[in-house]
Amino acid sequence: MNKSKIAVLGSGIMATALTFPLAENGHEVHLVGTHLDRDIIDSIKKTGIHPNLGLKIPSTVKAYQLEEIEEAFEGADVAMSGVNSFGVDWVGEQLAKVVKPGMMVLSITKGMQADEDGNLYILPDIIKKYFTKDLVDSVTWSAVVGPSIAGEVAVKRDTCVVFCGEDQESLDKLAHMFRTDYYHVWTSTDFVGMEVAAATKNIYAFAAGFNEGIRDKNKEENDRYVRFNYGSAVFAQGQVELTQFMQLLSDNKTLSPRHLLVGSGDMFVTSMGGRNVKAGRYVGAGIPFSEVRDNYMKGVTMEGVAAIRVIGGAMEPLTKRGIIKESDFPLLRHLYDIIVNDQPLNMPWEKFFDGEK
Amino acid sequence: MNKSKIAVLGSGIMATALTFPLAENGHEVHLVGTHLDRDIIDSIKKTGIHPNLGLKIPSTVKAYQLEEIEEAFEGADVAMSGVNSFGVDWVGEQLAKVVKPGMMVLSITKGMQADEDGNLYILPDIIKKYFTKDLVDSVTWSAVVGPSIAGEVAVKRDTCVVFCGEDQESLDKLAHMFRTDYYHVWTSTDFVGMEVAAATKNIYAFAAGFNEGIRDKNKEENDRYVRFNYGSAVFAQGQVELTQFMQLLSDNKTLSPRHLLVGSGDMFVTSMGGRNVKAGRYVGAGIPFSEVRDNYMKGVTMEGVAAIRVIGGAMEPLTKRGIIKESDFPLLRHLYDIIVNDQPLNMPWEKFFDGEK
């Protein structure tokens, strides 16, 4: 196999975990910390250990502080954006300075942004805004999506993902670089549909906490019967709305097997736990979201909540413009009401599944 | 609301749980035990308590032993089949004697049967075989599908289901009889598609136990990183194959919101636990299925395992006939190998999601 050089900006757990299969395949990997990652990079330089991942990273992966970014990206075949959705504008600015024609840009950030008219954009489009038109056209754009908990990749647990993007040849090259006997990679050129599925599933992770919260409120912890029926119906309505988002924004209108991996599989793993589920649990227990945000989970980054704010905020302009119907996305609209208008949880069941009749 | 009379054959937990919303709506409900339910009916007659459900059933529900079936079904508007998939032929024989023209037959049994050529039949079609042609045509056929744990319905936890069948008017009437503020009912005339989704999801519940079993085998119980990536990929491939089954057997080719409730939602809840998941966990831990069946879970009814045997057994004849491709249903084919040929678990990842490339 030809060896490639991969430079990564952002040394969070997901970006770092992806260096494991790359190192295993013998590639040269340069991991660059953001200004927020200074301690992580220091730790790796000193001990080889990524503190949040709790693991020694492969010895061939070379760590760089942000001021060394130019050296790190010099001559790279692949430029990876490894920050979370809050850092995507910043990463666009940075990459604009170090990405060179011919590189393959690979994004692992899940999320979307909206403008005032409710138009929704996938995050690679946000990064592109910071590039010159020539540079945009002289590189290829791809992203990693699918159900993938970072630490599991790092400790070589079986993981199935999709590399999506505009250019099949780049996707094939990238997939080849990353594939191991535990990291299974498929490809798709439905860039927008896949990115939309990956972004919207976070929304519904917040709702996945409600049933446990209702149990907390009603002190049902020793009750023989739980609320799986509630949770599975919410999961299914999440699937309905995720599918509709894909159909709305992508030219691809059907749920292919790989869309099911990215939409259904990723929503499944995200529903199993995490910060968004925890926030939803508090709301299910009857605590107004403003209190969850300001007290119970003060300072905690919640990408699902951010996605509800962004994508939920697009509902009104999109409805006014006649692009979606008032009856579309009833769950997201209710989640938006909970988060932005501090409304109590009151699940609008009758609006689900195309409306009860 | 007009009051109706509903007679139910089978007094297992699901059939009995459904008498709760019916009784709440003021309908007359007759619950008839099978020959295996004698103790349950005795208990209800004496104390009002259903022993397996652990609950007092509504006082207006009248319990009958099997020898009283004719009295119980006399003048009923609805004849419910409330047994599990192993009892469906027996229930056909019994209902053939007591169902009268004009009744609405409602099935809650999930499963399929196959003939030697691999043709698959939904269970209402099996019941029909025991009816005269005239009787088949003089009643209507419907079924209850969707994510619904029996006990949760009985204790009034929110539950979303689909009533599917051939006749919209009957579906509307039945939905009206059952709907309460916690039992939410949608309808669909894709009888076959919905029944296939409900039947096949049990198959994949068995596979949902593998990841925990691998953890058991590797003694990873205190490990920071679990195997959610594995579980979610298996869940997603289950969704792929369930979808393909629906497309194969139903005229309806797209996943509507209600199909997602019945397919995706029900597979979600089934994956959360139960006997099929437990059996899969043993296999994941490295125990041959024959030992699980004969020792660890001797005598335990496993509908998912039965479904793998029946539906998995249809793979070979359907492939020979050119109706499906060799590469279709790789997960089900492997589950069949595990259960019927006692093969060890060795997940064929590269065949998933239309084949890795």
Automatic annotation (TrEMBL), chains A, B:
It comes from Apibacter muscae. It is an enzyme of class 1 (oxidoreductase). This is Glycerol-3-phosphate dehydrogenase. Substrate binds at K110, R275, N276. NAD(+) binds at A150, R275. One of its GO terms (biological process) is glycerol-3-phosphate catabolic process. Keywords: Lipid biosynthesis, Lipid metabolism, NAD, Oxidoreductase, Phospholipid biosynthesis, Phospholipid metabolism. Its EC number is 1.1.1.94. GO terms for molecular function: glycerol-3-phosphate dehydrogenase (NADP+) activity; NAD binding. It catalyses: sn-glycerol 3-phosphate + NADP(+) = dihydroxyacetone phosphate + NADPH + H(+). Residues 190-345 form the Glycerol-3-phosphate dehydrogenase NAD-dependent C-terminal domain.
